[in-house]
Amino acid sequence: MSYLQRVKQGFGSMTGFFTDSWSELKKVKWPTRKELTSYTIVVLVTVVFATIYFWVIDLGLTELLRFFKV
């Protein structure tokens, strides 16, 4: 197989990949604006709670280490 044939075959498979990907994206059930808003709020609240949780754990461990260091 010549070099040009391999390049042409590579571009053919790449074109097929994008065609197949686009057809699969058409099958996806995308969330409505209301669903997307509620999902975003859930994620943000979860991140805030996780941040606060780890911040409190970090403060506690820091104070514990300071207590035993002295």
Based on Cα principal axes, name the global outline: elongated
Number of domains: 2
Output mean pLDDT. 88
Summing up helix and strand content along with how strands pair, one would put the structural category as mainly alpha
Number of strands: 0
Unreliable runs, pLDDT <50, ≥5 residues? none
Computed over alpha carbons, the radius of gyration is 26 Å
Summarize the helix and strand pattern as letters: HH
Description:
The chain is mostly helical and 70 residues long. It folds into 2 domains: 1-30; 36-70. The protein is built from 2 helices and no strands. The protein has helices at residues 3-27, 33-69. The protein is elongated, with a radius of gyration of 26 Å. The mean pLDDT is 88.
List the helices and strands and how they pair.
Layout: H1 3-27, H2 33-69
List keywords for this structure.
single chain, 70 residues, mainly alpha, 2 domains, 89% helix
Give a short overview.
The chain contains 2 helices and no strands.
